[in-house]
């Protein structure tokens, strides 16, 4: 599935279902913006840009990204790798995941790699660790 864009006046939110691990940080953080029972489920104009930035930054998989009106994608600075806790390895700060054949599997500000070996979307986390 391709990354889908939800356009707002001051910022747009993009979402990639294939990389989402369903941690629900977005839904808990800004329920007026992210509502799974609504179509479209993301309404960027329902909050300010600063609030959107904060919640998108909490997305552990990089499935959400914010693009401000000027067109610049907001990405964290520096690269960090978070491990442990029984969940995925979270890489923040921008990276490129390359397959064995050299093809780019994902490029983004945040990537969640499977740590439990149960994922159906290897090497990416799909949330399977929650039931493992």
Task: Walk me through what this model shows.
By secondary structure, this protein is mainly beta. The chain folds into 2 domains: 4-68, 2-Layer Sandwich (Alpha-Beta Plaits); 80-130, no CATH class. Helices cover 11% and strands 27% of the residues. It has 2 helices and 6 strands; from the N terminus they run ββααββββ. It has helices spanning 25-29, 49-57, and strands at residues 4-6, 11-15, 64-68, 80-82, 89-98, 104-113. The strands form 2 sheets. A 3-stranded antiparallel sheet has the order 1-2-3, with helices on one face. A 3-stranded antiparallel sheet has the order 4-5-6, with no helix packed on it. The two termini are 25 Å apart.
Write the layout of secondary structure elements.
Blueprint: E1 4-6, E2 11-15, H1 25-29, H2 49-57, E3 64-68, E4 80-82, E5 89-98, E6 104-113
Antiparallel strand pairs: 1-2, 2-3, 4-5, 5-6
Helix and strand element order = EEHHEEEE
Going by CATH, the architecture of the largest domain would be: 2-Layer Sandwich
Largest sheet: 3 strands, antiparallel
How many domain regions?
A: 2
Instruction: Count every helix, treating DSSP H or I runs of 4 or more residues as helices.
Output: 2
The percent range for strand residues is 25-35%
Largest sheet strand order? 1-2-3
CATH topology of the largest domain: Alpha-Beta Plaits
**Helix percent band:** 10-25%
Radius of gyration: 15 Å
């Amino acid at each position: 599935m391709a990354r889908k864009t939800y356009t707002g006046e001051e910022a747009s939110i993009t979402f990639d279902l294939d990389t989402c691990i369903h941690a629900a940080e977005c839904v808990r953080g800004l329920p007026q913006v992210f509502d799974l029972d609504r179509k479209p489920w993301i309404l960027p104009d329902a909050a300010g840009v600063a609030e959107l930035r904060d919640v998108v930054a909490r997305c552990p998989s990089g499935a959400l990204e914010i693009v401000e009106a000027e067109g610049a994608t907001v990405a964290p600075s520096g690269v960090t790798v978070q491990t442990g806790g029984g969940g995925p390895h979270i890489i923040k700060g921008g990276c490129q995941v390359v397959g064995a054949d050299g093809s780019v599997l994902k490029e983004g500000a945040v990537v969640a790699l499977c740590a439990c070996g149960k994922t159906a979307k290897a090497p990416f986390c799909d949330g399977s660790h929650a039931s493992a």
